[in-house]
Amino acid sequence: MKKTVIILASLMISALVGAQGINLSGSWKLNSSKSKLNAEFSMAPKSINMTQNGNSLSVEKHSEFQGQEMVSTDKLTLDGKECINPGFMDSQKKSTAVWSDDKKSLKVTSKIAMGDGNEMVITEIYKLDGTSLVIDSSSSSSFGEMAETMVYDK
Q1: Is residue 67 part of a domain?
Q2: pTM for the full predicted model
Q3: The pLDDT value given to residue 39
Q4: How many domains does the chain have?
Q5: Contact indicator for 71, 81 with CB cutoff of 8 Å
């Protein structure tokens, strides 16, 4: 009887963890050799620090642009509700984060208003592949379209 209760408790905990999806928390460093980055211009951050706690995810991206270090932080909820964070050049980035049906990937869609009256749409799909974080990223704007696969190691 005692063994049955322990097994049932373990199954319930596993189901609850699975319902929330994978845990993306950690400090991640870009592995350029495993990634598929654009040759001329890449949006891949050099490192990412992620903290996932319940229904919230904090994503801190460390990038370099024209020799200058840049840090951006997005605070997201994992329930599909729109979150507003700072974008580039005093713009706002409106994002939603939604788990896939199997809870093994997280899709973050962000929209940033551009100065020319258009908007940039960025879609990032976060998933774990063994011990690596893989982000399939695509963007579309009046400047054109771009797609990259970024691989990060802990």
Answers
A1: yes
A2: 0.84
A3: 86
A4: 1
A5: no
